[in-house]
Design a protein that fits this description.
Layout (H helix, E strand, L loop, with lengths): L5 E5 L6 H15 L3 E4 L14 E4 H10 L4 H7 L1 E3 L2 E4 L1 H7 L4 H8 L8 H20 L4 E5 L4 H10 L4 H14 L6 E6 L3 H11 L2 H13 L1 H5 L4 H22 L3 E6 L5 H11 L4
Parallel strand pairs: 1-6, 1-7, 2-6, 7-8
Antiparallel strand pairs: 3-5, 4-5
Helix pairs in contact: 1-13, 4-5, 6-8, 7-8, 7-12, 10-12
Amino acid sequence: MSQPRLIVLEGVAGSGKSTLARYVGDLLERRGTAHHVVVEGDLNNPADHESTAWLSTTDYADLLEDHPGDAGPVRACAEAHEGGLLVPYGVLRETGQVAASTLDALARHDVYELPEQLYRRLALRRWRAFAEQAAAAPDVWVLDCCLLQNPITMLMVKHNCNPQTVREHIRAVVESVSALDPVVVQLVQDDIRATLDRAIAERPTAWAESFVGYHTQQAYGRDHSLQGLDGAVQVLTARRHLEDELLEELPVVTVRIDISGGWDNARSTLRAMIGQRP
């Protein structure tokens, strides 16, 4: 396999995406390859809208009027997109520039809370801008979960879109980054419940409650009458089936790694992929 310029790690919560993304970065570092590792939650994710709000011009004007003391910092980071404005409220929160009430107001307009069609336009535009940026230098980009997990969660789980809508969106995203020779590393385990149980044991109780609640209380979960942890597992199982189908269809190289026995197999496979000895 020739060296890809884009490596994306995908898998359910607790499968080790972020940890193994950093491991790939370490391998690239040892090889002397210029690279960037972007994991879930990175506020500067160039391919995704992390903690970013989109407001129509009317909503934006209303927000500035309702929170005049924070108008300066908000204006300083707002960017015009799709007839409205993007505001990275996660950055504003991290830097402590605005009040909590302003952050709450912005969060209600999070990109991941938008109507499906507007979300798709913003997400695809973000990917196309990233592809242009990445093509300008030989660096390798290692991304965590934003090619399949995030859009499928948004389109299938939140909005219960038909599978064809999901396919069309992700095909357009893959097409936008085709010049980077993308590779998808899919971390899989037969027992999704065991993987999720491990993630729940390792993370705060509030995370588990939020994760289960989101996956069962959005459109897909409601339409299928799913509840509790078992319901969340059913959602994740359906998501993985769709991912499997997509990876069979998409023009990307897929490296499928079974992590049922731990991460040793994943590390050895990734070393071989990057061209590093143990």
